[in-house]
Amino acid sequence: MSPASTGASTAVGAAVSVRSADSRLAPGGPGYRRMSFALFLAGVATFALLYSTQALLPLISGEFGVAASEASWTVAAATGGLALFVLPMSALSERFGRRTVMTASLAVAVGVGLLVPFAPSIGALVVLRAVQGAALAGLPASATAYLAEEVRPRALVTAIGLFVAGNSVGGMSGRVITGWVAQEWGWRPAVGVIGVIAVVCAVAFRLLLPAPRHFTPGSLRPRVLLGTVRDHLSDPLLRRLYAIGALFMTVFGGVYTVVGYRLTEAPFSLPQGIVGSIFLVYLVGTVSASTAGRLVGRLGRRGALYLAGGTTAAGLLVSLAASLPLVLLGLVLVTAGFFAGHAVASSAVSRTATHGRAQASALYQSAYYIGSSAGSTVGAMAFHARGWGGTVTVGLFAVLGVVTITVLGSRAARVAARREPVAAH
Question: 168: Cβ–Cβ under 8 A, 6 or more apart, which residues?
């Protein structure tokens, strides 16, 4: 082949590559708004269903005659089911497509959600919630993999931030709605209303989400999947990001599982509707998640994680006060720090993984929801043993873990940078 023909073929290949990159979605481009709104609604449905019982735990404890640590399993079972099944569901999305798996997952989770209000015992309720969590496992990893494939790299952090913002809106609206409905009619109608809302979100999601244009089916062979998982787990950066996600969610899961008990008891003694409205502070998380891209642009990834961890720790300490306004301020800071940290870490996973993005995201989501289950259970146990101070202590240790891991990552990056010039020689 002549040099001229080689140059021509290279130019053609580069042009094809540019066109392929340009065909991905970007802010202001066709389909981007529909895609963003569809995944926003998927995030709303996911978190509304996943944490539908969290604001209702005092009422569930009262009806079934169980302690906070036992009632908290209605939350931990859902997040635990998601953590266990997110990796298998991500493998299905590699073979059958992100949109197909997300649609099926929402359909099953919504169906189970309509059965939850009829649970005859605490055991049955926990089982239904575990099944619901397992069904929802198809959403998080598939959504981030879809975005990594269909959105231009520069817009990825913002796009994932919008999906996370949908999570925060779902978590907030689910808790606020259940709080007020439960105050009038009990916890069963409250979770039933959430099921109906999730049906609407699921239908709208399926109608709005653009068909994928850059998805390439992968293999379901166990050897291939295990090799991909092994590759991701051998990457030090991905391991650190997984641990950071788990630790942030340990804080968040513990705080929001227990806060309802604290606010319904003395000295606050708030009614259930007001306690549910406390979750309006999730709106802060909506803002912090959706602006995570700009935060990374100004501070870098590690700087953004330091800021998120420091904000979370400050919120935990402020919440120790026996003053309702200060408790609310503490929740605002914890929520802002958590959602910013989660958006930064999850988007970094999608950008770091060069192959098997669904598995990389699934491992993050698995660690994240293991952290949620651990935080819900350990936070409730600490509250039972030591009160709110015990839950705060658990959260502070988790934040310390985030900061420590980020420091170690900074040191590893400096060592790698010093080795590069040596390797060049």
Answer: 43, 47, 282, 283, 285, 286, 289, 335, 339
Distances (CA, A) of 60 to 154, 350, 377: 45, 38, 16
Of the two residues 258 and 69, the one the predictor is more confident about is 258
Rounded Cα distance between 302 and 297, Å, is 11
pLDDT in tens, 285-311: 777 877 777 888 888 888 999 999 999
Of 305, 358, 349, nearest to 91 by C-alpha is 358
- Band (pLDDT 50/70/90 cuts) for residue 186 is very high
Instruction: Kindly write down the DSSP assignment for every residue of 346-407, as one continuous string.
Output: HHHHHHH-SS-HHHHHHHHHHHHHHHHHHHHHHHHHHHHHHTHHHHHHHHHHHHHHHHHHHH
* pLDDT of the residue at 8: 43
Cα–Cα dist 83/79, whole Å: 6
CA distances from 356 to 49, 138, 194, 332, 347 (A): 28, 15, 34, 36, 15
pTM > 0.85: yes or no: no
Do 357 and 167 contact (CB within 8 A), yes or no? no
3-class DSSP string for 148-177: HHHECHHHHHHHHHHHHHHHHHHHHHHHHH
- When mean pLDDT is compared across 35-49, 64-78, 274-288, 395-409, the lowest value belongs to 274-288
